[in-house]
Design a protein that fits this description.
By secondary structure, the chain is an alpha+beta fold. Among the domains are: about 80 residues, no CATH class; about 160 residues, Histidine kinase-like ATPase, C-terminal domain (Heat Shock Protein 90), CATH 3.30.565. The chain has eleven helices and seven strands. The strands form two sheets. It has a five-stranded mixed beta sheet, covered by helices on one side. Strands 1-3 form a two-stranded antiparallel ribbon. A hairpin with a 5-residue loop joins β4 and β5. α4 runs antiparallel to α5, α6 packs across α8 and α8 packs antiparallel against α10. The chain is elongated and about 120 Å long. The protein starts with a helix and ends with a helix.
Length: about 350
């Protein structure tokens, strides 16, 4: 900070040094003033020492406000403008005034945006609930005409619409996930089986088998949101599985005590350069573009929810051999860190 202040004051320093040099030259050249060179050097050294002392004093005094402002910037808060440091100079008062007014203005804008987002979220949630009513009626009609081959195809398309509507409902609830958070102990098989049943009509349409193995471990998690994560992963697995392929779902316990749920498909796989980005919002990759059905939201939402639940998501893939997504559930004593 001192060197920045020195750079800001370089014009003043330059003016002082030029003035001192000009004065020395005039004193030496004026024949009417008899000045000893040693006396002139003594006076110059004394003036320079006084100037340096004055410069340091002014630095500490003028930069006190800036130092406090820098500390405030390192600890941002929503009401930061209420904690602005005290001022000593008129220019600092003006800075405080501008920052305070800007802070109030931005806070009002942020409040308006939040209210708009809440209203839009409520509208979306209400719309989704309204749409679910005719979807439920359609489901009953499909169930009562399951023998009709055309109905089986309609059921698969109905499922895609249902999953998109349900995904939208969860998106609207995502900002308030912390308030909709219930921890309980559940067997991994119960988490997976319900989602497999939801996607069964789609699996039948593509002739994709689902094999479950070792799903006996207990995990501590929020059942509804964990199922949402599994649904996003399974949806991708079914979407990219080849005709007649198999999806393998297994669970294992790590030496650390964490339970890892793995979902492996036999799809085309993900190129190595795309793998680090599959959880990014809107990223579809080459495989997604080929299928022309990817939105780039499923895995992003899964990652976002996982972070809030303390679940670690990771992916491995080999081109032509499929992709494996793993969910590492936290141990029970890890939730103290998550909740704080």
């Amino acid at each position: 900070m001192f060197f920045r202040y020195l750079n800001d004051m370089k014009s003043w320093i330059f003016f002082f040094l030029v003035s001192l040099t000009a004065t020395d030259i005039l004193l030496l050249m004026d024949p009417g003033i008899g000045v000893e060179l040693s006396a002139l050097v003594y006076v110059n050294v004394l003036v320079l020492i006084m100037f340096i002392a004055f410069f340091i004093w002014r630095f500490r005094r003028e930069m006190a406000y800036t130092r406090q402002l820098a500390l405030l910037a390192n600890e941002p808060a929503t009401d930061w403008y209420e904690a602005l440091p005290e001022t000593r100079f008129k220019r600092d008062e003006m800075v405080n005034y501008v920052l305070h007014e800007a802070g109030i203005s931005f806070s009002k804008q942020l409040s308006d945006i939040r209210r708009t987002n809440v209203a839009q979220g409520d509208y979306t949630a209400a719309w989704v609930h309204e749409v679910k009513a005719p979807l439920t009626a359609m489901r009953l009609i499909i169930e009562s005409n399951r023998g009709d081959l055309a109905m089986r195809k309609i059921e698969a398309e109905w499922l895609r619409v249902y999953l998109l509507v349900d995904q939208q409902l969860y998106i609207s609830r995502l900002p308030t996930l912390e308030a909709d958070y219930v921890l309980e102990s559940v067997v991994t098989k119960n988490l997976v089986s319900a989602e497999v049943r939801e996607l069964m009509s789609w699996c039948r349409e593509k002739n994709v088998a689902v094999e479950l193995e070792g799903l006996h471990a207990l995990v501590m998690t929020d059942v509804k949101w964990s199922r949402f994560i599994i649904r996003q992963i399974l949806t991708n697995a079914v979407k990219y599985s080849r005709e007649g392929g198999t999806i393998f779902i297994t669970a294992r316990s790590e030496p650390t005590g964490h339970v890892v749920l793995a979902i492996h498909d036999e799809g085309p796989g993900i190129p190595e350069h795309d793998l680090p980005r599959i959880f990014d919002k809107g990223f579809t990759g080459g495989t997604g573009r080929l299928h022309n059905a990817a939105t780039g939201l499923g895995l992003y939402l899964a990652k976002t929810v996982s972070a809030k639940l303390g679940i670690m998501l990771s992916a491995q893939s080999d081109l032509g051999r499929g992709t494996t997504i793993e969910m590492a559930f936290p141990k029970e004593n890890d939730f103290d860190k998550i909740l704080t």
